[in-house]
Amino acid sequence: MAFPSAPSALWSVSLLTALFAAAVHSNIVYDDDPLQPVTSDETVSVGGTVTLTCRVAESDNSSLQWSNTAQQTLYFGEKRALRDNRIQLHRSTATELSITIAEVLLSDEGEYTCSIFTMPVRTARATVTVLGVPGKPQISGFESAVPEGGKVTLTCTSTGSKPPAKLRWFRGNQELEGRPNVVESVPDDPTYNVSSELTLEVSRSDDKALITCAVDHPSLAPGDKRSEQALRVLYSPDVEIVPESDLPREGEKFHLKCLGNGNPEPTSYSWQKKDGELPPLAKVDGAFLHFEMLNKSDNGVYLCHADNVIGSSQAEYTLLVQDPTAMSTSSGVDHAVIGGVVAVIVFILLCLLIVLGRYLIRHKGTYLTHEAKGSDDAPDADTAIINAEGGHSGAEDKKEYFI
Ligand SMILES: *[C@@H]1O[C@H](CO)[C@@H](O)[C@H](O)[C@H]1NC(C)=O
Ligand SMILES: *[C@@H]1O[C@H](CO)[C@@H](O)[C@H](O)[C@H]1NC(C)=O
Ligand SMILES: *[C@@H]1O[C@H](CO)[C@@H](O)[C@H](O)[C@H]1NC(C)=O
């Protein structure tokens, strides 16, 4: 809610420059006349509050007055002239008359006049621009999951903006190019409805992707109003065969698992052996192919087919049964490396321990003093240990200092 009251923060530099130039043009021309009132143009969002300030450099005690776009007097000095509770006196001094208009309406837009009743009367005008705040964007056009390679056309609409809002499309952080915004207006309504279309050719990577429509508007902070639409894409399975282990040994139990990543999930799997029948001891169980007891005669290339309603595909696995005594060469190397590293670490730790032990023996007095001190101050045993450790590290600092 803080934002609509300070919409100018978002104005583009060019707009600000234009406004500033206009302000300079209308008001500061008479800057050398100390009785000339000075005002500034204001921009406010519908529902917000705007403050109109009118100042003179010097006062001859003449009254200042604000009047509205229909030339009705709002305030004459501190006297309220129009009965509208949205309009309140903000400050009235000899050199300033400020008023606020709350719950601003689109119809409040226009030129307000500040006058000072000198001889002759001097006036300054302030243009109030009222921004129509765009509604939350609505995305339509996505009804149900679309097959891979198909096209999806999304439409995003936002109502009630003034000036017309700009709609932008994103997939994650990446901006997508939609068709140019369509701006609609109707007579007697100063606000606009805007819409934008986005057409995407979807691939399997778009399944579950979030498409965002965001509204860009000077009355909003970036990202204030956005909507998301999750895509769902139907695609045939990607198939992969995962073995139970990398070392199938003769005589052991073993299985292959067929992973079919598709949308929808594959409904059926089938197993085959290239150049022959499945071995008698191999049992098909859906996505699994179980071997009760591996035998070198099982060697060969196995195929898994996975099907969903969109299509099917297959993967291959080459089974090479090892001797019952086979050791995994790759993991053997890994073990040797890990063993070596552990040995080196243990050796370093031992060295450290010896150095530390020798140091402790030499500086036993200091160490004990610090430990005792920590334990004495401690309210309980745990803290005593923590304090003692603290004292210990203090002793180490000291060691560095003496050496
Ligand atoms: C304005 O009014 C005050 C008191 O109301 C007076 O002291 C002052 O002299 C007046 N100034 C002029 C310029 O008349
Ligand atoms: C904008 O859309 C709203 C709701 O759909 C409709 O009532 C209004 O008349 C539209 N305004 C314009 C300017 O098209
Ligand atoms: C493998 O199968 C052959 C014949 O099919 C059989 O003679 C042999 O004993 C089997 N080996 C093992 C380890 O079961």
Automatic annotation (TrEMBL):
Gene3D superfamilies on file: Immunoglobulins
UniProt cross-references to CDD domains, sorted A to Z: IgI_2_Necl-1-4
Compositional bias annotation for Basic and acidic residues: 394-403
Signal peptide as annotated in the record: 1-26
InterPro entries linked to this entry: CD80_C2-set, Ig-like_dom, Ig-like_dom_sf, Ig-like_fold, Ig_sub, Ig_sub2, Ig_V-set, Neurexin-like
Stretch list, region Disordered: 372-403
Similarity comment: family membership: Belongs to the nectin family.
Record-given protein name: Cell adhesion molecule 3
Organism: Dicentrarchus labrax (European seabass)
Taxon lineage: Eukaryota, Metazoa, Chordata, Craniata, Vertebrata
